[in-house]
Design goal:
- 2 copies of one chain form a homodimer.
- The first copy, chain A, is about 40% helix and about 20% strand.
- Chain A has about 325 residues and is of the alpha/beta class.
- Chain A contains 13 helices and 14 strands.
- In chain A, the strands form 4 sheets. A 7-stranded parallel beta sheet of chain A has the order 5-2-1-9-10-13-14, sandwiched between helices. Chain A has a 3-stranded antiparallel beta sheet with strand order 7-6-8. Chain A has a two-stranded antiparallel sheet with strand order 3-4.
- The radius of gyration of chain A is 19 Å and the shape is globular.
- The first copy, chain A, has a single domain, classed as Rossmann fold (3-Layer(aba) Sandwich), CATH 3.40.50.10680.
- The interface between A and B is medium-sized, with 30 and 30 residues.
Chain lengths: ~325, ~325
Amino acid sequence: MIVALAGGVGGAKLVDGLARVLSAQELTAVVNTGDDFEHLGLRVSPDLDTVMYTLAGRANTETGWGLAGETWRFMEALERLGGETWFRLGDQDLATHMCRTQMLAAGATLSEVAARLCGSLGVTQQIVPMSDGDVHTMIKTSEGELAFQEYFVRRHCAPVVQSVRYAGAADALPSEAFLEALGDARLQAVVLCPSNPWLSIEPMLTLPGVRERLRCIHVPVIAVSPIVGGQAIKGPAAKIMHELGRDVSALEVAKFYGDLLDGFVLDRIDAHLAVAVADLGMEPLVTDTVMTDGERRAHLARDVIRLATRLADGASA
Amino acid sequence: MIVALAGGVGGAKLVDGLARVLSAQELTAVVNTGDDFEHLGLRVSPDLDTVMYTLAGRANTETGWGLAGETWRFMEALERLGGETWFRLGDQDLATHMCRTQMLAAGATLSEVAARLCGSLGVTQQIVPMSDGDVHTMIKTSEGELAFQEYFVRRHCAPVVQSVRYAGAADALPSEAFLEALGDARLQAVVLCPSNPWLSIEPMLTLPGVRERLRCIHVPVIAVSPIVGGQAIKGPAAKIMHELGRDVSALEVAKFYGDLLDGFVLDRIDAHLAVAVADLGMEPLVTDTVMTDGERRAHLARDVIRLATRLADGASA
């Protein structure tokens, strides 16, 4: 059984790969909710939706967010009425936010909402929010501090990032399902998916007890680099690393996670970094990490599981 | 200047007729809000929207509610997620409810919301809610008391009506714009549009002071019968009249409004009732009242205004 920590697109792809090679009971995806926000009175959970839509086979692979075959009549009408249109909500996607908002208002936890939505869309794997509490990723930039979606969507990641904080994280407990998955007797590995380390993975590690728990967990913790050949496959990871004064490289990602990791997966293009990764005390694995189709997603998932098995065998040997 | 009290479809058609023959400054439509309700966390104002969409030239004339050329992707997605779909919200219509809900949550009155939405849709006439307070039309039926939309939409008006009450009406003040319009020095007539007397007009008359105000107002009060040839043009008016033990006839509508009225407009098919209407102390006007197109709407509006002028002249003579 694998616990995969995931953010948006890159994370969803590896979760999908794992879902292709594991049974539904063997996979729990724990998803970042630091990007969640309220918009037009609706609770929007972008990363949860991206993972859920991806596993449901309904993700819009062109945009990297939202649903395939989406329409925009609501947004057009909203624009006519002078409403806020900087955050695009598709006609079908809207139903997800509406259901979530209603269920939360009726007293359900975000975990319960996620389970119910997944069930409705036929997703059998467990997709759980990192926390049922409120965590808000805040970006300190050259133009002042911005809420995540203000920075990411409204400003298209243009402002220069100075630091990132996770408001509310100190008081937000990891979700029960997250903790249960980490304590599951069948657990074989924890995988940090190739999501943005600062925006997607770090919010989860910052939750009370999570980093400590992962540090002393008895199964391998493995990260897959979201940086390939000095570039991010998607999103602002490379730009943010540069702005934070770091080298834009897979090695830097490995350093960022540090002693949390037992294994680190690099793309072939970064094979030359394997030795330096090993010097950090991690087992490097060099393979194809760019998941351009379902087969490549499954292939990477198999490699990650193989590394986990090797590390577990090594530890027990 | 004319004040028109209107509910849904029939009311909206006469308001549209009046809008075609008067300047924008000469018409104030006061609209029933007893049908308003909260659905999926959204404040829905069916009658306000029907009047607004009609004057904006965007009404769906086939359904009698909602927008022309509407699409239903949101509802389809909501259905997949197991959400409530008995009340149909179109993709574009949804934007109206979303804007309204947001503005109300931000502290605006329903009157302010109506003005802003009308402005966005290019409607220049004043469309005002009967009240900025909460009034809920409740239908006592053979199956117990039902909230209006439960009765009207969810149950398709099937339960037998025993009585109707307007919860909250005693504590809801008429909107400022409603009172201002009634006190306007330019006021020439108050028109009760051919809307359902029990479901659309009575909620307005029940608001504190309104019936008294209309009874002693110095301009003619004129109603147009929504019952034509013993039938309702649209909606459950005839069924409800029957269930309430009344004759289903235009005369019965005239009796229902009673001494409030100075004039009453009947369809040609009901010409034989004119004498009985006159016996009630009202000036009858027999004309074509079925507003199947814009020209007929304008024609009826002109007739109503002519009757108002005649009544005013008679009173001052």
